[in-house]
Write a structure and sequence with these properties.
This protein is an alpha+beta fold and about 200 residues long. It folds into 2 domains: about 70 residues, 3-Layer(aba) Sandwich (Glutaredoxin), CATH 3.40.30; about 120 residues, Glutathione S-transferase Yfyf (Class Pi), Chain A, domain 2 (Up-down Bundle), CATH 1.20.1050. Helix content is about 50%, strand content about 5%. It is built from 8 helices and 4 strands. A 4-stranded mixed beta sheet has the order 2-1-3-4, with helices on one face. A hairpin with a 5-residue loop joins β3 and β4. α1 runs parallel beside α3, α4 runs parallel beside α6 and α5 packs across α7. The longest helix has 29 residues. It is globular, with a radius of gyration of 17 Å. The structure holds glutathione. The site of glutathione has 13 residues, from α3.
């Protein structure tokens, strides 16, 4: 399997985290999504929407959309239990992530990192909705260790990608101790260095 991704992208992190966790082999093809790497005819032939991540199989089939890819690669593994109710609760979080979390949190991260804007330049609507999303997670995690009660799943992977970077978008994680503890748990489960540790490592 080939994975076309941009290492700076949380959406691409989701795919990398799941494949590494499951020990599934893949070749990573770096695509610069800021400098037009997703707009070339070759790339658009793989994903007409012009976005990473995309996975490609040896027979040429391609699949885009990070959460669809998560579902596909996790099928039949412990990251996606077969129980229908559990699976539906995982989807509940993953659809919520795409509609109510990613656009706001990743949008602010992108403004302050890729575009070099300051915290005060962020869209007030994105800030408000991003804070709401983080608060919803904080409240949920007051009574649970993982997003879905059965344990660590692709719902956690879908949400950890941008939540662990939320401070880069100007969001205050110190206000959310349960969320911080969940980020630590996910990073431990995935064998990741925390964002702070990674920044401190030469
Ligand atoms: N909903 C998509 C979003 C993918 C996305 O926004 N990808 C960005 C990088 S994070 C991208 O490729 N942007 C390039 C572009 O839109 O031109 C997913 O979950 O995969």
């Amino acid at each position: 399997m080939k994975v076309y991704g941009d290492r700076r992208s949380g959406n691409c992190d989701k795919v990398r985290f799941a494949l590494d966790y499951l020990g599934q082999p893949y070749a990573w093809i770096e695509v610069d999504s800021v400098q037009g790497g997703t707009r070339t005819p070759e790339f658009l032939a793989k994903n007409p929407l012009g976005q990473v991540p995309v996975i490609e199989f040896s027979d040429g089939r391609c699949l885009a959309q990070s959460n669809a890819i998560l579902r596909h690669v996790a099928n039949g593994t412990q990251l996606l239990p077969t129980d229908q109710w559990v699976s539906a609760k995982i989807d509940e979080w993953m659809f919520w992530e795409a509609n109510n979390h990613e656009f706001f949190i990743a949008g602010c991260i992108s403004c302050m990192t890729y575009m070099g804007m300051s915290k005060s330049d962020r869209s007030p609507m994105r800030v408000e909705r991003g804070n709401q999303a983080l608060d919803i997670m904080e409240r949920h995690l007051e009574r649970a260790d993982w997003l879905v009660e059965t344990g660590f799943t692709i719902a956690d992977i879908a949400l950890i990608a941008y939540t662990r970077q939320a401070h880069l978008g100007g969001f205050d994680m110190n206000l959310r101790p349960r969320l911080r503890a969940w980020v630590d748990r996910c990073e431990h489960e995935l064998g990741l260095k925390s964002e702070e540790e990674a920044a401190a490592t030469p």
